[in-house]
Amino acid sequence: MSATQTPTPDTPLVQSPAWAALARHRQALDGVHMRDLFAADPERFDKYSLKLGTLLLDYSKNRLTDETLPLLLDFARARDLEGWRDRMFAGAAINLTEGRAVLHTALRQPKGATVLVDGRNVVPDVHAVLDRMGAFATAVRDGVWRGWTGQPITDIVNIGIGGSDLGPVMVTQALTPYHHPHLQAHFVSNVDGTHIAEVLKKVDAETTLFIIASKTFTTQETLANAHTARDWLLAQGAPADAVAKHFVAVSTNAKEVAAFGIDTDNMFGFWDWVGGRYSLWSAIGLPILLMIGPDRFAELLAGAHAMDEHFRTAPLDANMPVLMGLIGLWYVNFWDAQSYAVLPYDQYLARLPAYLQQADMESNGKGVDRDGRPVDYATGPVLFGEPGTNGQHAFYQLIHQGTPLIPADFLAPIETHNPVGRHHTLLLANFLAQTEALLLGKTEDEARAELAAQGLDGEELEALVPHKVFTGNRPTNTLLFQKLDPHTLGTLIALYEHKIFVQGILWNLNSFDQWGVELGKQLAKAILPELEGGSRRGHDCSTAGLIRLVRDGLR
Ligand code: F6P
After folding, report:
1. Is the beta carbon of 310 within 6 A of some atom in ligand 1?
2. Which residues act catalytically here (predicted)?
3. Residue-wise pLDDT tens digits, 195-215
4. In this structure, are 265 and 331 located in the same domain?
5. pLDDT, tens digit (0-9, with 9 covering 90-100), for 444-485
6. What pLDDT shows up at residue 536?
């Protein structure tokens, strides 16, 4: 069978003809340097870049020849990527282990669209919640919703963790220029009491609104923080009925919300077909909406919808999430890349890498395939990153000259919200220089000439040469956009969501469960009573020894 013939989708991955063809092609690329690929093809930038609205993806600085993408696309077709994509958009229960649809895309559908889940159009439900959120946010923003002493709200404290925290934190920070001038947002996630204690020091009970955000409303950290916040409010002199004015909930679990003592009239719901790490578009986005207002939140959703439509309809070879997913897989499976950097050259995107860590690693950090068979190929890489230029002075050394291959995405806006002196030009010069340096590197001859120009020669010069050489040929994607506005941010986030989906499908994973986080939670519940004086249970001797020390102290 030739590599371009389609095997049945359940052919073991590494035995499929398309995989074998990629493996052969990878071997043929030994010794090929991207420097030479660029020298041979002045059209490479035009050929390997793609624009959607005001977002450009330049993927030319990758280890790709004209043969590579057709082979990767054959592989995608052989794994029925288009079929899986269509099933996701159509509301099929592709989250097999939980029997759920995966429909965060329905959350950004315009009014009037139809998305059926079990025969019911969910789009009107989505917009009913959005309208309630909008009305509530407007009341808070206009000072109509007031605290128990009649004062308008000045501070919003979102209490949630994981997907009920990272998306709202990241987007709220990214859209700082659009914030309401008289509102401050705070986020409490960690069960470490320091987190809530430090936030509570900054706010006034009379003017603070708490959002308790938890899909399940059973998450230990969130409930502990929520109880502490309520106790604090009452300890500040608020009467018991003040809770209704100062606490709202975002959840799929009305029963537990009521059990906590929040009036379900003050609850904003969502649905089990929204995964936690894909939920910022739902009521989980309430803190974002409060800070930027309903119109800007609608722009965020519209930006994501534009990417959804692109992903759903563009041919695979001109489809941004597909190309980014395939290129990422190319490095993980055929070049042994075990990590991957996301490097935003925009201080407002400081939390994007942390957000994407959950989105990517909780989705594709899996060791068995959809059928429960252990995989015999690498899956999700370790994702990390920091804003440029800070990262340049920290971990970029490893990316430039270290032994691991670390593919990286570089992101930057052409226009800044803060045109301060030459800062933005300096930032962009660094942004452009990094991907050029990673591509080209510096040869021995170039290093030698540079050292000679500095006046060195002989043994001294030769001893330094190997340290000054950069191999180059290190792959990057560039995501360049006009300005970090709500629409662009929505488009960018949806791009990464779909890229993660593409990789999950190609690795034959269920990207939408997260059983791997459960064992630690179970054991923490078992250890808690032991730390509170209860009898000790059987543990390995390390854990038992540590429990003893935590109880008895080290002094
Ligand atoms: O860490 C596991 C997890 O289930 C995440 O997937 C989720 O985003 C987070 O916990 C918070 O869950 P919840 O919103 O139910 O409190």
Report:
1. no
2. 362 (proton donor), 393, 521
3. 999 999 999 999 999 999 999
4. no
5. 999 999 999 999 999 999 999 999 999 999 999 999 999 999
6. 75
CB-CB contact of 361 with 324 (8 Å): no
* Residues 380 and 258 placed together within one structural domain of the fold: no
* 277 ligand 1 Cβ < 6 A: yes
| ipTM score of complex | 0.98
Span 82-99, pLDDT tens digits: 999 999 999 999 999 999
What is 388-447 written as a DSSP string? TTGGGGTTHHHHHHSSS---EEEEEESS-S---TTHHHHHHHHHHHHHHHHHH-B-HHHH
305: annotated active-site residue: no
Q: Are residues 189 and 334 in the same domain?
A: no
Ligand 1 atom closest to Cα of residue 221: 16
Atom of ligand 1 nearest to the CA of 161: 11
Distances, alpha carbon 283 to alpha carbons 151, 178, 267, 359, in Å: 25, 19, 9, 18
**Could you tell me if the CB of 147 is within 6 A of ligand 1?**
no
How far apart are alpha carbons 318 and 48 in whole angstroms?
Answer: 10
Task: Give the separation between CA 132 and CA 502, rounded to whole angstroms.
Answer: 34
Is the model's pLDDT at 3 over the cut of 70?
no
pLDDT category, 9, cuts 50, 70, 90?
Answer: low
Nearest ligand 1 atom to the CA of 166 is 8
182 is a catalytic site residue: no
How many domains does the structure of the chain reveal? Answer: 4
Residue 23, helix vs strand vs coil = helix
Count the Cβ atoms, other than its own, within 10 Å of residue 354.
18
**Does the predicted model carry a pTM greater than 0.90?**
yes
Cα–Cα distance between 478 and 480 in angstroms, integer? 6
Whose tokens are 């068995």? That residue is 368
pLDDT number for residue 2: 39
Mutating to test ligand 1, I would choose from 95, 161, 220 the residue with most ligand atoms within 8 A of its C-beta, which is 161
Beta strands in 223-324, from DSSP E residues, in sequence order: 247-251, 267-269
Name residues whose C-beta falls within 8 Å of residue 433's C-beta, 6 or more positions apart in sequence: none
How far does the centroid of ligand 1 lie from the alpha carbon of residue 487, in Å? Answer: 26
359 C-alpha vs ligand 1 centroid, how far in Å? 12
Cα-based torsion angle of the residue sequence 278, 283, 288, 290 in order, rounded to the nearest 10 degrees: 180
CA distance 465 to 144: 69
368 and 247 within one domain = no
Length of the chain in terms of residues written: 555
pLDDT digits (tens, 9 = 90+) for 211-228: 999 999 999 999 999 999
- Told to judge if 362 belongs to the known catalytic residues of this protein, a careful annotator would answer yes
Cα 118 to ligand 1 centre (Å): 25
Residues 495 and 412 in one domain: yes
| CATH code of the domain covering residue 169 | 3.40.50.10490
List the catalytic residue out of 206, 221, 299, 362: 362
